[in-house]
Design goal:
It is built from 9 helices and no strands. It has about 210 residues and is an all-alpha fold. The protein has one domain. The protein is globular, with a radius of gyration of 18 Å.
């Protein structure tokens, strides 16, 4: 594996992680709603989900998954359903007459983990895109681990930036209950929209 390959992979990773998606949305929404601590908890949940995908790629599970269209469709639909569920849950909390209680840090971590495990964008990256950077003449697992370390380092840097930026906005502008409700509604609607978009993409491919 050459230096040029690693640099190209790093660029691809940066473009993937910086672009809006379920992971970025979850981290940003949690940071806006509950501040920096919740944002970092969601971030670590996201990264742990990515570590699982890296381990799957290193052990060949991702390669097996890539041969099954039905398995990829099931993963995509499960991720879409989970995003819609989170959106509906968030919207119902906003519409409640009671003030919503801050979510526990452990729950935020787990939701971040599940969001990234079921994230179709990350699944496609590790199932279809990462193998293009591997040299079949060299040990595959070692290459996946090395590229995975590059991926995690870049993902942490990007997600931490989102956490710090969103939590700074939260401290300045989220003291108003009206602003909190509007932001939570936008986050809820975006979750649902991402889930429906994932389903629609699958129908277009079919």
């Amino acid at each position: 594996m050459t230096t040029a390959t690693v640099l190209l992979f790093a660029l691809a990773t940066f473009l993937l992680t910086v672009s809006p998606g379920p992971g970025v949305l979850y981290v940003t929404a949690r940071s806006l709603a509950q501040g920096r601590r919740a944002g970092f908890a969601s971030m670590f949940g996201i990264e742990f989900g990515e570590v699982v995908w890296i381990a799957a790629a290193a052990t060949g599970v991702a390669a097996l998954l890539s041969t099954s269209v039905a398995a990829l469709d099931a993963l995509r639909l499960a991720g879409a359903a989970y995003l819609v569920y989170l959106g509906i849950q968030r919207w119902r909390q906003v519409g409640s007459t009671l003030a919503p209680q801050p979510a526990p840090i452990g729950r935020i971590f787990v939701q971040g983990f599940v969001t990234q495990i079921l994230n179709p964008k990350v699944a496609v990256f590790f199932v279809a895109f990462l193998p293009q950077f591997l040299n079949p003449a060299q040990p595959i697992a070692a290459q996946v681990i090395a590229l995975g370390a590059v991926y995690i380092a870049i993902a942490i840097a990007v997600d931490a930036t989102y956490v710090l930026a969103a939590s700074a906005v939260s401290r300045r502008f989220m003291r108003s209950s009206v602003a909190q409700k509007r932001t939570n509604r936008v986050a809820a609607a975006t979750y649902v929209a991402l889930g429906l978009a994932a389903v629609a993409t699958g129908f277009r491919k079919t």
